[in-house]
Amino acid sequence: MQIYSESEFDPNSNKPTEQGLQRVLNRLIQTMQRDALIRQTTNHLRELLQVDRVVLYYFYWQWHGQVTFESLRSEEFSILGSTGPDECFNDEYAALYLNGRVRAIADIESELISPCHRDFLQSLKVRANLVAPVLIPRGLWGLLVAHNCQELRSWSQSDIELIQAGAQTLATSPHILET
């Protein structure tokens, strides 16, 4: 027969409450660290690429997502909270990004893209677009996107490598892998 201490049977013990609070606190800290990393990454990319906007488009459910972070040259370029047209981003597009596709569009007006995609980009005041997938072991977590809103942009190989590095930084972060 095992003998328990009096404190193990103390009805005034707050052990379950303390454990619950600790879990909530740990989750909050993890979220804050994740958010700080994303903010730092988007800000750094916007400065290095010298673009109007860098955003993180996060997929919260099977190709449904929204812009959850943005770094802006000017507040007039804000699209925070924007959702994409779900009919445009389908399994075909997702498969391309799941395979690591990086898409660089110098001018959305002359690029061969679907009318749905063009209309969507025009609604966001995009003129040039650079997109890299954030791939985690579970799949496509999000898209890291750089926009020029006012002028064309011929994206260089170093521009592409920068956005890929930013996406890789996010994809390998334990703060993102655990979400």
Please outline the helices and strands.
Blueprint: H1 15-49, E1 53-61, E2 64-72, H2 91-98, E3 103-105, H3 115-123, E4 128-136, E5 139-148, H4 157-171, H5 174-177
Antiparallel strand pairs: 1-2, 1-5, 3-4, 4-5
Q: How many strands in all? A: 5
Strand order within the widest sheet?
Answer: 2-1-5-4-3
What's the helix count?
A: 5
**What order do the helices and strands follow?**
HEEHEHEEHH
Q: In one word, what is the shape?
A: elongated
Class from secondary-structure proportions:
alpha+beta
Q: Calculate Rg over CA atoms.
A: 21 Å
Biggest beta-sheet profile:
5 strands, antiparallel
Average residue pLDDT: 89
Q: Tell me the span between the first and last alpha carbons.
A: 43 Å
Helical proportion?
25-40%
List low-pLDDT spans. none
Strand content range: 15-25%
Report on this structure.
This protein is of the alpha+beta class and 179 residues long. The model has no long low-confidence stretch (mean pLDDT 89). The protein has helices at 15-49, 91-98, 115-123, 157-171, 174-177, and strands at residues 53-61, 64-72, 103-105, 128-136, 139-148.
Give me some keywords for this one:
179 residues, alpha+beta, five-stranded antiparallel β-sheet, 5 helices
